[in-house]
Design a protein that fits this description.
Helix content is 58%, strand content 0%. By secondary structure, the chain is mainly α.
Length: 64
C-alpha cells in the first residue's frame, strides 16, 4: 500500500496534478486531498473509493 507522500511523488513523476487526477476519476480536488493527507481515513463512501483508486488501501469499489 502506498503512503500519501508516495502518491504525490508518483503524480509528480507523471506530471499529473491532483486536480487532473480527481477530475479524471470523478472526484473533487478536496476529496482527494483529504485522503492523501490523512484527513479522511478512506473507510466509507467517496474517501474509500479515492483511497482504493490511489492504491492507498486494498478494497473493492461497489457502485450503487
Amino acid at each position: 500500500m502506498k503512503t500519501g507522500a508516495q502518491v504525490i511523488e508518483e503524480m509528480r513523476r507523471r506530471g499529473e496534478t491532483v486536480t487532473a487526477w480527481a477530475n479524471k476519476n470523478g472526484f473533487t480536488f478536496q476529496q482527494v486531498q483529504n485522503v492523501i493527507h490523512g484527513r479522511a481515513k478512506g473507510n466509507w463512501g467517496k474517501s474509500h473509493a479515492v483511497a482504493v483508486k490511489l492504491g492507498m488501501k486494498k478494497g473493492e469499489i461497489i457502485n450503487s
